[in-house]
Design brief:
Blueprint: H1 7-21, H2 28-43, H3 46-70
Helix pairs in contact: 1-2
Length: 74
């Protein structure tokens, strides 16, 4: 699954990678790998995405339940 990032997000990630590695002498492949891993950290793993989705559903269901309890009966 490809994650689309805005140009601003890409710029910020690239700057952070550069900040971390500016004192190091890195090969081009190391720089590419560092950029990829920083993006992966932002996006997360499939398991993390599943957990976020489950949390959102749970939150929505709790709000619906609370709303139903608080609405007056006719």
């Amino acid at each position: 699954m490809r994650i689309e990032l805005s140009e601003e997000d890409r710029r910020v990630l690239d700057e952070k990678v550069e900040d971390v590695t500016e004192s190091d002498e890195l090969s081009e492949s190391q720089v590419r790998f560092a950029r990829w891993t920083s993006k992966e950290a932002v996006v997360g793993s499939k398991q993390r995405l599943k957990q976020v989705a489950a949390d959102m559903v749970n939150h929505f269901e709790q709000r619906l339940s609370a709303s139903a309890r608080n609405s007056p009966s006719c």
